[in-house]
Amino acid sequence: MTYVRRAIPGFGNPDTAQMLTKLVVAGCLLLLVAEALQAVEWRFRPRVTLRETFSDNINISATNPEQDFVTDI
User: Fold this and answer.
1) Looking at residue 39, what is its pLDDT?
2) How far is CA 70 from CA 47, 52, 55, 60, 62, in A?
3) Which of 3, 17, 29, 56 shows the greatest Cβ crowding within 10 Å of its Cβ?
4) pLDDT digits (tens, 9 = 90+) for 11-61
5) Which has the closest alpha carbon to 67: 49, 55, 51?
6) CA dihedral 22, 25, 30, 32 (to 10 degrees)
7) For residue 11, what pLDDT is reported?
8) Residue 6 backbone dihedrals phi, psi, to 5 degrees
């Protein structure tokens, strides 16, 4: 297999392109490390919420309005 070094458009020198590639890879690794350093311990707290809503036109009808309560759990 033959490896051909090609320059990035706008960079005539292949060494400059290689340096830019290394810089991009180092920047990505730095971002990954920074994310790992900000890791937080998660705590799960189970809970149940109950909400009651009153509507004076539960069926949204202009001719036959009906009032009722809606319960959300």
Assistant:
1) 63
2) 20, 6, 8, 14, 19
3) 17
4) 556 677 788 888 888 888 887 777 666 666 778 899 999 999 998 888 888
5) 55
6) -170
7) 55
8) -120, 145
Task: Name the 3-class secondary structure at 73.
Answer: coil
Nearest to 48 by CA among 71, 23, 21: 71
Amino acid at 41: E
CA 23 – CA 11 distance, rounded (Å): 15
End-to-end CA distance of the chain: 64
CA separation (Å) from 11 to 3, 7, 63? 19, 6, 74
